[in-house]
Every structure is written in structure tokens, then in C-alpha cells.
Amino acid sequence: MTAKKILILDHNQIQQKINRIAHQILEDNFGEDEIILAGVVARGYRLALRLKDVLNKIADFKITIIKLELEKDSSKLESKIDVTLASCENKVIILVDDVLNSGRTLAYGLGVFLNIPLKKLRSVVLVNRSHKNFPVATDFVGLELSTVLKEHVSVILDENGEEDGVYLK
What we know:
By secondary structure, the protein is α/β, with parallel strands linked by helices.
């Protein structure tokens, strides 16, 4: 027997959240020449691509996307990015992920950039579940969602022909 999926956000609602977050990023970075969106593979990266599409329409600054791969279940920071860390120095970095649950992924993602000088480091999540085990907070949130620990939030973004959606299982 499969668990019942409850639709929390549909495609249009997800796009509304992305549009709002993009405007918040624009306001927070007014006057910047460039920002870097660091998308956590896989859905954080897809979300970063969508944010870039909206930002390209409303912002004058250059938007660079980087792919950040993290070993999320490791007890220590293990990461890989598709650019050199030196190319991120003295820039605005915005870490992007789909769901903030325990905070481990966000903490590890932030840790990647801690040893280089930055203008600022911000974070974006589409859904914040508020079950943090790590002392992290996010700067831009699409939806704050109160859940119980045994529930699972699933984000679908352009995957295997499935319609976009945020589901609670």
C-alpha cells in the first residue's frame, strides 16, 4: 500500500513562489554587478535555473549558476562544484535547495564557501519544514510548512514528465 500524497503546491503556485523569491533576491542585491546561484544537485539546481530565468527578466546584474554536489548523508563535508572556488571570491553567493528539513544540506552547502572571501552568502529554499538539527536559517523561503517528523515533503520539478508539484506524504 502506498502512502497518500497530498498536493501542497501546484505548478502555478511554485512559479508564484519562484517569482516572489526572485524579486526578493533583486531587492537584496540592488546595485550588484553579479550574483552566483549555487544550486544543490538535483532539485536545488533545477530551482536555481528557474530563479535565473526570472532574474534575467527583471535584474540588470549578471547571474551565474553553479552546480553544487554534496554527500548529504556523510558525517563530514564532502562536496564538488563545477567551477573553481577562486572564481567565487568577492561575489554574492546564493545557495539554493528545494527543502530545508534538518539543515544538514544547507550547513554543508554553506561550509563550501566559508574559506573564501565573499561579499555575502544567502540561502533560498522552496519549502522550510522547520525540523532543524543544525543551527541554520534561510534568507528566502517560498513556503513555511509545519509537518510532523514522519511526514515527507517531495518536490517535483521537471522530472520524468511529471507535473511540477510539492507533495506531502
